[in-house]
Amino acid sequence: MSDPETLAARAAVYDDMKERCAAIGLKMYEFGEFIGVSKTTIPKWRSVGTPPYALNILQMLETYGVPASWKVSRARPEPTNADALDAIRKAATAVIDDAIGKGWSRQQIAFALRALADETDPRRT
Fold this sequence. Notes:
- The chain is mainly alpha-helical.
- The protein has helices spanning 4-23, 28-35, 45-48, 52-64, 82-101, 106-120.
- Helix 4 (52-64) packs antiparallel against helix 5 (82-101), helix 4 runs parallel beside helix 6 (106-120) and helix 5 (82-101) packs antiparallel against helix 6 (106-120).
């Protein structure tokens, strides 16, 4: 079991992520569905820690934006910038798959995703 300080830090990261999702118009389960994570898994992140890839994908969504009309449902409508979002998803998936294949740690994967964000976003120079 983790110490109280670690649990508090993990909860703070989770709460910050929840606020950031709300700021771009997404609920946590919608964000989870976007990145392919079960809505029952996301609440567990509050105690076990939020994976770095989730924070990096959230950063990309904040950077490129999510249309206010886009809501996830069983029959999800295509977002107005579907090509950009699909490109982000494919690039992030490729980086993660490659890193897992190389046996990288979560921290190394997070650095690789940050590097991808730096390459693709001109404002991050």
